[in-house]
Specification:
Chain lengths: 117, 108
């Protein structure tokens, strides 16, 4: 079974530029998550999708971050304009179904390391 | 604010010893708990999940859960150099809240 795919793996941009990340979850997984992991910290949830609907975006900086999952499969996360403090690893994860008995095992993709100069 | 706290590291153990990792959580609504292993420069890898009070063993790993005390632990028996990584504890209440991680170094 293929895992969660993400691209690009690395990205370097100047501040105020825009950037987009792509994620393809494990086949059949209804729930998709985007996390931000700053060096030395645990992952922080940015947004959670159930199929193509947003169920939690409470920690997404909506003035600059946006995400979509139009057909309930692939997802993109965009930052516009980027700030220095956005330098982090952006992780995508998926699970079968967040409502499946609360177990909700999540599996992570390889991540995208973003450096903002 | 749902918080997950892990014992501060780094934790250094000799090869063959037991590494003990601890985690507490604040949200009593959390239903399941996970331990992820993260090698440097890599993404988190799920190694253990536990849903009920008590112990759960999987190979050299044992997870323990005590919901009354809001406490989760992970024991790594017969530690190997390949176990050197950061271990992340996560609590699930329909979304995961992660601790900052504990870095384990197994010295040969």
């Amino acid at each position: 079974e293929a895992g969660v795919a993400q691209s690009p793996r690395y990205k370097i941009i100047e501040k105020r530029q825009s950037v987009a990340f792509w994620c393809n979850p494990i086949s059949g997984h209804a729930t998709l998550y985007w996390y931000q992991q700053i060096l030395g910290q645990g992952p922080k949830l940015l947004i959670q999708f159930q199929n193509n609907g947003v169920v939690d975006d409470s920690q997404l900086p909506k003035d600059r971050f946006s995400a979509e999952r139009l057909k309930g499969v692939d997802s993109t996360l965009k930052i516009q304009p980027a700030k220095l403090e956005d330098s982090a690893v952006y992780l995508c994860a998926s699970s079968l179904d967040r409502l499946a008995g609360g177990h909700n095992e999540q599996f992570f993709g390889p991540g995208t390391r973003l450096t903002v100069l | 604010q749902k918080e997950v706290e892990q014992n501060s590291g780094p934790l250094s153990v000799p090869e063959g010893a037991i590494a003990s990792l601890n985690c507490t959580y604040s949200d009593r609504g959390s239903q399941s708990f996970f331990w992820y292993r993260q090698y440097s420069g890599k993404s988190p890898e799920l190694i253990m999940s536990i849903y009920s009070n008590g112990d759960k063993e999987d190979g050299r790993f044992t997870a323990q859960l005590n919901k009354a005390s809001q406490y989760v632990s992970l024991l790594i028996r017969d530690s190997q150099p390949s176990d050197s990584a950061t271990y992340l504890c996560a609590a699930n209440d329909y979304k995961l809240s992660f601790g900052a991680g504990t870095t384990v170094t197994v010295r040969a």
